[in-house]
Design a protein that fits this description.
Elements lengths: L16 E5 L27 H13 L4 E5 L9 H9 L6 E6 L4 H10 L4 E5 L5 H8 L4 H14 L3 E8 L8 H7 L6 E6 L7 H7 L4 H9 L3 E2 L10 E4 L6 E5 L12 E4 L4 E3 L8 E2 L10 H11 L26
Helix pairs in contact: 1-2, 1-9, 3-5
Length: 329
C-alpha cells in the first residue's frame, strides 16, 4: 500500500498518528493516575518487541507516519531502545516520539536520540519541588529539569512538557509555567484533568476547566495560533516575547473530537478507537508472524466502522478506562 493515510472513519477523519503503549507499568505514583502505584496482575503480558515492530510496520503501510511510544512509563522496559530503533527503521515513519516522566533523562537522553527518537514529551506537573513530590510521589523535579537540558544537548529539537491542570495543587503556578518557557524553545501543554472510572472524587475536587488557561494567556498578551491541517486537538498559543509556545488540551471543550487524528493500541495489543471508548479490539492474534500483515491491515480498516463521532465525557461517561496508565493517555 502507498504512504497515503488510508485509515479513515465514516466522519471523514483520517488517522496518521498512532499512540502505542508498550507497558502499563509506571514507577511514579501520580495522584491523578496511579496514586497507589502500579499493581501487577497475573494477566500482565505485554506485547514483545517483535510483535510491536510487526504492528508498527502494518500501520506504516496504511499511511501512519507518526508513532508515539507511551506507557505507563515506556522507558522502564529493558528493550525500550531496541523497540525504538526497530520502529525507526520502518519505511514511512517520519516522526518517532515518546512520552516519559523523565526520571532517568539526564543519563539517557543521548541514547534515546541515537535510537531514532526525535520528539519527547516530559510530564512536569509542578515547578515547585514540594508540590511536584505531592503530585507524583517522588522528589525528582531537579533531576527532570537537568534532563530537559540534556535533551537539547543530545540534539532534540522537539521538546514538550505536559502539565495536568489540578485545582488546588498547581493552578497557582500558571504564571510561573508561562514564564518558564519564555527563554526556552519548549512547547508546554496544559492538559485538562479527565474523569476515569477510579478518580471520580479526585476529579470533582481538582478539575479545572481549560478556559482558565485561555483567560490567563489572553490577559498576558498571548494569541491563538491558526490551526495547522492535520494537527491534533491542542489549541496553540504564541507570544512574540516568548521563545516557547503553549498548548491547551481541553477534552471537555466544544468540538474537541472533530480534529481527532490518532488511534491507540494498548500494551497488550488491543486497538482503542477512543481514549474513553467501551473497550478495545484484540490485534495480538494477527502479530504472530510476518505473513499476517495484510490480514492485520484489513482488520484495522474494518474496525474503523465502529469509531464514534465523539467521546461522552460530558455525560459523565468515561467508558471502561480505569486509569490513564492503562492506555498511555
Amino acid at each position: 500500500m502507498s504512504n497515503e493515510t488510508v485509515i479513515a472513519d465514516q466522519f471523514g477523519r483520517r488517522f496518521p498518528y498512532l499512540r502505542l503503549s508498550i507497558t502499563d507499568i509506571c514507577n511514579f505514583r501520580c495522584s491523578y493516575c496511579l496514586p497507589d502505584g502500579y499493581k501487577k496482575t497475573k494477566a500482565d503480558s505485554f506485547l514483545n518487541a517483535q510483535e510491536i515492530i510487526r504492528l508498527a510496520r502494518a500501520f506504516a503501510a496504511l499511511g501512519t507516519w507518526k508513532i508515539r511510544l507511551t506507557g505507563g512509563e515506556p522507558t522502564v522496559r529493558s528493550d525500550f531502545l531496541d523497540i525504538a530503533s526497530g520502529i525507526n527503521e520502518i519505511s514511512g515513519i517520519k516522526k518517532l516520539a515518546f512520552t516519559t516522566n523523565g526520571y532517568r533523562l539526564t543519563e539517557r537522553a543521548g541514547s534515546y536520540y541515537d535510537a531514532g527518537l526525535r520528539a519527547i514529551n516530559i510530564s512536569v506537573d509542578s515547578l515547585k519541588s514540594d508540590s511536584f513530590k505531592q503530585i507524583t510521589g517522588h522528589d525528582y523535579l531537579e533531576n527532570i529539569m537537568d534532563g530537559i537540558d540534556a535533551c537539547f544537548d543530545a540534539g532534540f529539537e522537539n521538546v514538550k512538557l505536559n502539565t495536568v491542570l489540578l485545582k488546588g495543587l498547581n493552578d497557582g503556578e500558571l504564571d510561573s509555567f508561562i514564564d518558564f518557557v519564555a527563554d526556552k524553545p519548549i512547547s508546554l501543554r496544559f492538559i485538562e484533568l479527565m474523569q476515569t472510572r477510579d478518580n471520580i472524587d479526585y476529579f470533582k475536587a481538582h478539575h479545572l476547566a481549560g478556559a482558565a488557561v485561555t483567560e490567563k494567556l489572553l490577559s498576558r498578551g498571548w494569541s491563538q495560533k491558526p490551526r495547522i491541517t492535520g494537527a491534533g486537538p491542542a489549541i496553540e498559543f504564541a507570544n512574540k516575547d516568548s521563545q516557547g509556545t503553549i498548548g491547551l488540551i481541553a477534552p471537555y471543550s466544544k468540538d474537541f473530537c472533530a480534529s481527532c487524528n490518532r488511534l491507540r493500541v494498548s500494551a497488550k495489543g488491543a486497538l482503542h478507537l477512543c481514549l474513553f471508548g467501551e473497550g478495545g479490539y484484540d490485534l495480538r492474534k494477527y502479530l504472530q508472524s510476518d505473513d499476517q500483515c495484510e490480514e492485520l491491515q484489513n482488520k484495522i480498516i474494518s474496525l474503523m466502522d465502529f469509531k464514534k463521532s465523539a467521546h461522552f465525557l460530558h455525560d459523565g461517561n468515561s467508558g471502561v478506562r480505569e486509569h490513564l496508565a492503562s492506555i498511555g493517555g
